[in-house]
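Quick one, tokens below:
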């Protein structure tokens, strides 16, 4: 059996390990600190056994730092306008960390499989992060703060839930992540087509008296 993440004596390998990487990478694209903290807490309380490449997440200093940063993001991500800057900045955090988690989770696989998993983890996180940022751009101009707060809280909850579910039922978690990934891709294509049509539309001709 291929090495992976163990839960109650069962090692996640093959399709289950791939599904876990999909779900956790998507969660990291939404909130990387919540994802790291959830994995760390589950490992620390021996609810899961992380592979060798991810043992660093079991360290209380790492888990504690993730919890502190999660608390900061919880408030920073709910401030209209500032959340756009915050999410832009985290393009350089969420995607690399998701790739590193995928890299660590497959540390005992062949170099080719590990590279493929790392690229997939980063790409999935990029799509999740892009969809989150796009949704925030659409909601931020709203004059009332409720929608922005609700959207951010929903993202936080989804990140924690997907990470936990991935350690319990990885296939189900991956299917949920896949649905969101498809929705994001469809939304991005629709936005791009709308913009292209807008630029291709002929300008109204000026009338001269």
């Amino acid at each position: 059996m291929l090495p992976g993440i163990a839960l109650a004596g069962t090692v996640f390998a093959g399709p289950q390990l791939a599904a876990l990487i999909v779900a956790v990478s998507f969660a990291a694209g939404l909130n990387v600190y919540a994802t790291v903290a959830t994995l760390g807490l589950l490992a620390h309380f021996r609810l899961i056994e992380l592979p060798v490449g991810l043992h660093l997440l079991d360290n209380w200093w790492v888990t504690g730092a993730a919890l502190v940063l999660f608390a900061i993001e919880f408030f920073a991500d709910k401030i209209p306008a500032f959340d756009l800057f915050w999410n832009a900045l985290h393009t350089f955090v969420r995607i690399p960390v998701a790739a590193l988690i995928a890299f660590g989770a497959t540390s005992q696989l062949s170099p080719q499989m590990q590279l493929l998993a790392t690229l997939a983890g980063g790409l999935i996180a990029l799509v999740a992060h892009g969809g989150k940022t796009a949704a925030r751009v659409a909601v931020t101009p709203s004059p009332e703060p409720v929608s922005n707060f609700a959207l951010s809280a929903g993202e936080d909850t989804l990140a924690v839930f997907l990470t936990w579910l991935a350690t319990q039922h990885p296939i189900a978690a991956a299917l949920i992540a896949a649905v969101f990934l498809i929705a994001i891709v469809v939304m991005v294509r629709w936005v791009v087509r709308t913009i292209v049509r807008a630029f291709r539309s002929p300008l109204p001709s000026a009338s001269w008296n």
